[in-house]
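Bug report (template v2)

What were you trying to do?
Predict the complex of my protein with nickel (II) ion.

What happened?
Run completed; filing so the output is reviewed.

Input:
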Amino acid sequence: MEQSQDNPFTFTVDVSEAKLDKYDHHITRSLSEMSGQYADQPAYDSALAREDVLLYEVYETSRPENSGELLNGISVLHPGKVGDEYFMTKGHFHAVLETAEVYYCLKGEGMMVMETPEGDWAVEALRPGKVLYVPPRWAHRSVNTGADEDLVTFFVYPGHAGHDYGTIEVQGFRKLVVEENGRPKIVDNPRWRSPQNGR
Ligand code: PA5
Ligand code: NI
């Protein structure tokens, strides 16, 4: 029986424009989709009343969502803050917890905030040229700590990983990244909720 197969393909990342020359999906996320995630609720409400600002964009090539595939693309996180807290992605566990992800930072400056269901947490700086390996079980959220530049990362993860956004929507991340005296600072999330029934 004949096996169906794909052909190898390439695409180019224009780092200064933060765009791929070929992609299938362009996903955008704005402030209204981050309800309950920023610590300073009055700052969130008044920012949203002014404008439902675009926080980040993801450009992806489409691949089948099975374990032999690698989903990949770029994430473009715009600069800004809600109160003292920098713009950030929603963040997620992978639905298949035992799946990893690799990020390669192309532009800007930021941090990846990570944690496991077991209570470990980690924050790694992202700078152009830096590769971040997010092991299986680690939820991940990128934060743009730059004053006026996009944080652009290339990411790759297994095709069957899926996204669990719900856990973070309910419990948040243990740590937040805020600006203090003009510099990023990692602080406890006062609204972090312990998982009710362990994962
Ligand atoms: O695969 C990833 O982890 C990234 O591509 C993210 O999906 C991307 O940065 C957007 O973040 P989120 O999916 O948490 O909204
Ligand atoms: Ni991921």
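What did the reviewer find?
The longest strand covers residues 70-77. The pocket of 5-phosphoarabinonic acid (ligand 1) is lined by residues 29, 58, 75, 89-92, 101, 140, 142, 155, 157, 163 (CB under 6 Å).
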